[in-house]
Write a structure and sequence with these properties.
It contains nine helices and eight strands. The protein is an alpha/beta fold and 218 residues long. The strands form two sheets. The protein has a five-stranded parallel β-sheet, with helices on both faces. It has a three-stranded antiparallel β-sheet with strand order 6-5-7. The longest helix has 15 residues, at 169-183. 31% of the residues are buried. Bound molecules: adenosine-5'-diphosphate (2 copies) and zinc ion (ZN).
Length: 218
């Protein structure tokens, strides 16, 4: 199987989802967000959703077992054949090792790991201002990315929006702790493999996209 396989790494609120969606639309490679999958499972009340709900609301990490099973099922689907952008996965060393095994078994490999770097101090505002379209999922921000027409989604025209329950200042703290303790160790893991590229996630959205495209080209 051929394709482009990218991992977007970065702290909660760093802009991974925003950039993954732009890449998906531009290059037709699918965004695989474990956060979105878990939220769908919570909304549907599945066993996975029931197990994940409280952990997500507290800003902790859902068990590696659940996540690895979820991503293995998803990557096996035909639309992933052209490639995919992993957004929010892997988040622990065991997840990264499981991914290597999974891809190795199908003779696939990761082409690039991009770290969207943003200092902690910027992330509370990013996260507490985040909202998204209830119909199509397009992402917005109260200050940094408002819909062109107030109250109307740019992409689908819907007038309904949602905010995530875990997007509050208290939970951000736990999520950042989890990022630094459990996810940041993956950066040297990928650096050693020569896959890691770092971009400046503090720049405006369009600028980050340009850096990302440059990093993927080079
Ligand atoms: P992540 O997927 O990494 O958690 P998001 O892509 O959801 O992050 O971005 C978090 C919030 O910050 C969203 O409200 C988004 O609109 C906004 N945002 C994303 N990238 C930028 C940026 N480069 N500058 C300012 N705000 C941004
Ligand atoms: P953000 O990028 O803003 O942190 P996500 O949507 O990626 O948000 O994740 C939301 C929550 O879902 C996380 O705080 C965590 O509880 C859970 N989650 C998502 N992906 C993973 C993963 N790969 N491993 C463990 N938990 C995860
Ligand atoms: Zn919409």
């Amino acid at each position: 199987m051929k394709g482009t396989r990218i991992i977007l790494m970065g702290p909660p609120g760093g802009g991974k989802g925003t950039q993954a969606k732009l890449l998906q639309d531009k290059y037709g490679i699918v965004q695989l967000s474990t956060g979105d999958m878990l939220r769908a499972a919570v909304a549907a009340g599945t066993p996975v959703g029931k197990e994940a709900k409280a952990i997500m609301e507290a800003g902790g990490l859902v068990s590696d077992d659940i996540i690895i099973r979820m991503i293995a099922d998803r990557i096996a689907q035909p639309d992933c054949g052209k490639g995919f952008i992993l957004d929010g996965f892997p988040r622990t060393v065991p997840q990264a090792e499981a991914l290597d095994k999974l891809l190795g078994g199908s003779a696939m490999k990761i082409d690039a790991v991009i770290e969207v770097r943003v200092p902690d101090a910027m992330l509370v505002e990013r996260i507490t201002g985040r909202f998204s379209c209830a119909k199509c999922g397009a992402g917005y921000h109260d200050s940094f990315h408002k819909p062109k027409k107030e109250g109307v989604c740019d992409d689908c025209g819907s007038t309904e929006f949602t905010r995530r329950k875990d997007d509050n200042a208290e939970t951000v703290k736990s999520r950042l702790e989890a990022y630094h303790a459990q996810t940041a160790p993956l950066l040297p893991y990928y650096e050693k493999q020569g896959l890691l590229r770092v971009i400046d996630g503090t720049a405006p959205i369009a600028d980050v996209t340009r850096q990302l495209e440059k990093a993927l080209a080079g």
